[in-house]
Amino acid sequence: MENNYLKKNKGFSLIEIMVSLAVFSIVVLVAAGALLSIIDGARKTQALKSVINNLNFAMEDISRNLRVGTVYHCDEGNLPRDTAKSCPSGASSIVFKPYKGGLATYRFKDGHIELSDGINSVAITAPEVVITNVKFVVTGTDANDNKQPKIFMTIQGYAGVKLRDQTNFNLQTTITQRILDF
């Protein structure tokens, strides 16, 4: 009778406890890894959203200013700055007359896009955005060509400071002069 009593009240063995702790530890490690991965993904998504908003603002600013401007030409250095000229092969900067008057230049410089009025220059892209290539292709600027002046713009680069968080982008847009070209 005493042997039956000992068999019924028997607890977990040391091996059973160690196995259950090992299984529990594995489950906790997997769950913690998944949680850290989700947090890292959310952080990267938030940073990318901020960068994309900055790029959208820059593209919209460039498009708006070029759309209402006139006298476009790629800044090739040897043209009078107030002369319109098509450049079908493209360049990394463009000179134009803004609607307010004067002259302005958008150019690719040191990994960002800057706007210059001839006196002051200001970067219009955030430091987290690294521009690797900008190209402006200008067509239709010749007088009496029956074509509205157009600018085809491409921007390539990457966003993100850390190498593992970098995301490449390639943006392009076509801008047509708003003022009719007679």
Question: Can you describe this structure?
Answer:
The structure is a single chain. It is built from 2 helices and 9 strands; from the N terminus they run ααβββββββββ. Strands 1-3-4-5-6 form a 5-stranded antiparallel sheet, covered by helices on one side. With 182 residues, the chain is of the alpha+beta class. The model has no long low-confidence stretch (mean pLDDT 84). The termini are far apart. Helix content is 34%, strand content 33%. A hairpin with a 2-residue loop joins β4 (104-109) and β5.
Distance between the termini: 114 Å
Give the percentage of residues in beta strands. 25-35%
Q: Give the strand order, joined by hyphens, for the main sheet.
A: 1-3-4-5-6
List how many beta strands DSSP finds: 9
Shape: rod-shaped
Class inferred from helices and paired strands: alpha+beta
Radius of gyration: 31 Å
Percent in helix: 25-40%
* Mean pLDDT rating: 84
Count of helix runs? 2
Low-confidence segments, ≥5 residues, pLDDT <50?
Answer: none
Secondary-structure element pattern, one letter each: HHEEEEEEEEE
Largest sheet data: 5 strands, antiparallel
Secondary-structure blueprint of this entry?
Elements: H1 2-8, H2 14-68, E1 70-74, E2 87-91, E3 93-97, E4 104-109, E5 112-116, E6 121-123, E7 129-139, E8 150-159, E9 167-176
Antiparallel strand pairs: 1-3, 2-7, 3-4, 4-5, 5-6, 7-8, 8-9
Properties at a glance:
2 helices, 5-stranded antiparallel beta sheet, alpha+beta, rod-shaped, 4-stranded antiparallel beta sheet, 182 residues, 9 strands
